[in-house]
Amino acid sequence: MKATPALSLVAGEGTTAVDTHVSTDPAVGAYAISRLAAVLEDAWTAIRAQHPDIDHAVVIIGPGTGTGRPAEHGHYGSLRWRHRHSDAEFAEVLVAGEGLSRTAAEVFGTLLHEAAHALADAREVKDTSRQGRWHNKHFAALATELGLAVEPDDKTGFRTRITDLTVGRYQSTIAALDSAVTLFRHPIKAKPTKKRDNSNNPIPLECACPRKIKVAPTIAEAGLIRCEVCGHAFMPDGKSDPTMTPDSTGAAHDGMPTFPWGTVPDGLATLRQLAAVGLRPGGQPIAARLTWRHGRRFANLYRLDLAMPKRQATPAQLDALARANAARAAKRGDR
């Protein structure tokens, strides 16, 4: 069986159908589609009779799936068609063949939905965003004016349905549509998209300033990025710089408790700090380690409670040191 082309009609008084050269052989269903297109044209005219602000439009029957866009029952496009001889321009109203499997009232509801877009177009009202996928409050008001019930929708903003009152108002039009709808198009299943194994979306990192940067995952995994202002590494949200984090148990440093600069607890001191107060380690083992410059420099820490008083030099020792220093100075002077 040969495929039957879609039929396009200009809906509205004073216009003529576009010649599509469709066969009228009932065996291939072309006559059914031709008749349905004419009824859809009449339905659009009936809507315009109730709402004169809505302009003429080219009503077409086409696919609602397999187009690369989300499945749809219809769409409206402003000024998509131009007359060959008068240069008059017309909007486009598409009724998806897949949606013809619904009731005639629901199909007519699709026409009313697109008529709401046409009304917004005529009144120069912005009723959608996101390439027409998101319907805003202005669309909801226009759809209500045309006799549709509107309900909030997370994906489209607002969805519509035809009310019983509107069905009664267009009873004869819907009845004609019901007798004309005898075919519907099979939906085309979208091809599954291959999920990417990796992502190039940048990762936000933050230092202690706080300043923020975004880098690719591979860059973040290659190593720490330091802030020249605060000295801390740029880290993901909620994580601290490992080189600036106290490790009191030594779990990350081979059992040696390690403290970055400024985080050493009370009771520990370096050799210089002990000497400054007249103390020495006194043979005690290293208790912990102090790191700075992002772990590249370190000093040993000792417990203050185990430290011993620093030995005092005797007069003889001080005299020997003085003579040794004098001899060294004299030797440098001979050079």
How is this structure best described in words?
It is a single chain. This protein is α+β, with helices and mostly antiparallel strands and 335 residues long. It has helices at 30-50, 104-122, 137-145, 164-169, 171-180, 217-222, 271-276, 315-334, and strands spanning 8-11, 57-62, 74-82, 89-96, 128-129, 134-135, 148-153, 157-162, 203-206, 212-215, 258-260, 268-269, 279-280, 288-292, 297-303, 308-309. The model is unreliable at 1-24 (pLDDT under 50).
Q: What's this model, at a glance?
A:
The chain is of the alpha+beta class. The protein has eight helices and 16 strands.
Mean pLDDT over all positions: 85
Strand composition percent: 15-25%
Helix content: 25-40%
Q: Which ranges are low-confidence, i.e. pLDDT below 50, for 5 or more consecutive residues?
A: 1-24
Rg calc: 41 Å
The CA-CA distance between the termini, in Å, is 113 Å
Q: Look at the helices and sheets and give the structural class.
A: alpha+beta
User: Largest sheet, order of strands side by side?
Assistant: 1-2-4-3
Largest sheet, if any? 4 strands, mixed
Oligomer: single chain
Number of strands: 16
Shape: rod-shaped
Number of helices in the DSSP assignment: 8
Give the helices and strands as they follow along the chain. EHEEEHEEHEEHHEEHEEHEEEEH
